[in-house]
Amino acid sequence: MMLITKQTDYAIRILSSMARDKNSVYTTTELAEKLKISKPFVRAIMQKLNKEKIILSAKGKGGGFRMVIEPEKISVATLINIFQGPIKFDDCLIRKSLCPEVKTCSLKKKLKEIGSYINEEFKALTLDKLLKKPGFIKKL
C-alpha cells in the first residue's frame, strides 16, 4: 500500500526547496536540475500547484514561480489531496468484490480508525516542520 505517490513526494521536495527562500522566483529548469527531477514532471507539478494557488507564476523575462502561501500553512495532507485525493483505509484488504460483512467487519472499522489517525498526522505535518527535521531534504 503506497501512502504517498511520486508526484506528491516531488511536490513536497519542490515546495521545501522553494520555502528556503520563499521570496525568490524559481524556474522549472532550475528546480529540475537542483532536485534531479525531469523537467516535464516538475512543470506538471508546478502547474497544479499554481492552479491551487500555492505558488504563483510570472511569465516573461525574469519569470518563474514563487510561493504565495507560508510553509507553515501548507500541510502534507493538503498536498496529498491535491495530487492523489484523500487517503482512505476502509477498502477491504482481502476481497476485491463487495463483502457481505461490510457493515459488521471489525477489520474495516480498525482500518478506518488508522486512516483517520494518519490523516490527522498529515494535517499537522507542515512544510516548515519538515524543514526543521534533521536529515530531511538536506541538500535542497
Attribute tags:
Arc Repressor Mutant, subunit A; single chain; mainly alpha; 49% helix; elongated; 140 residues; 6 helices; two-stranded antiparallel sheet
Give the strand line-up of the largest sheet. 1-2
CATH class placement: Mainly Alpha
Unreliable spans are: none
| Gross geometry | elongated
CATH superfamily placement: Winged helix-like DNA-binding domain superfamily/Winged helix DNA-binding domain
Structural class computed from helices and strand pairing:
mainly alpha
Number of H- or I-type helical stretches: 6
Name the average pLDDT: 86
Give the biggest beta sheet.
2 strands, antiparallel
**Which percent range fits the helix content?**
40-55%
Spell the H/E element sequence: HHHEEHHH
Summarize the structure.
The protein is mainly alpha-helical. Helix 1 packs across helix 3, helix 1 packs across helix 4 and helix 2 packs across helix 3. The longest helix has 19 residues.
Topology:
Blueprint: H1 6-19, H2 28-35, H3 39-51, E1 55-58, E2 64-67, H4 76-84, H5 106-124, H6 127-132
Helix pairs in contact: 1-3, 1-4, 2-3
Give an overview in words:
A two-stranded antiparallel sheet has the order 1-2. The protein has a single domain (6-132), classed as Orthogonal Bundle (Arc Repressor Mutant, subunit A), CATH 1.10.10.10. It is mainly α and 140 residues long. The model has no long low-confidence stretch (mean pLDDT 86). Helix content is 49%, strand content 6%. The protein has helices at residues 6-19, 28-35, 39-51, 76-84, 106-124, 127-132; strands spanning 55-58, 64-67. It is built from 6 helices and 2 strands; from the N terminus they run αααββααα.
